[in-house]
Amino acid sequence: MQCLHAFVSGRVQGVWFRQSTVETALAHGLSGWVRNLDDGRVELMAKGDEHGLMLLEAWLSIGPALATVAEVRSEWIDNSSNFEGFEVL
Questions:
Q1: Which three-class secondary structure state does DSSP give residue 18?
Q2: Residue 29 in contact with residue 52, Cβ under 8 Å?
Q3: Do 46 and 30 form a contact (C-beta atoms < 8 A)?
Q4: pLDDT, tens digit, for every residue of 55-84?
């Protein structure tokens, strides 16, 4: 299992970005979490197989229809945490 940690900036709060991330992650069999940050970005941690994570990472650059993604900063990390499902924090 791989783990993806990402920060997404742009118009990504108040546009269903977190819920759409949950739906996209679950569709690809991933677990983890997503949350809004005080500085206007969205942060997420996703765990699963490499293919599913790559699909999620590509989707983050687009986001849901109302979002305008300016930048995605992501890294693949070692994380031994076990996540139950995918949740909004």
A1: helix
A2: yes
A3: yes
A4: 999 999 999 999 999 999 999 998 777 888
The pLDDT value recorded for residue 27 is: 97
Q: Reduced to 3 states, what is the DSSP secondary structure of residue 25?
A: helix
- Give the DSSP per-residue string, 51-86: HHHHHHHHHHTT-STT-EEEEEEEEEE-------SE
88 within a domain of the structure (yes/no): no
pLDDT digits (tens, 9 = 90+) for 27-56: 999 999 999 999 999 999 999 999 999 999
DSSP bridge partners of 13: none
What's the predicted TM-score (pTM) here? 0.93
Tell me which residues are annotated as active site: 18, 36
| Pair type for strands 86-88 and 31-36 | parallel
The tokens for 28 are 């690809």
**Count of domains for the chain:** 1
Residue 39: domain span: 2-83
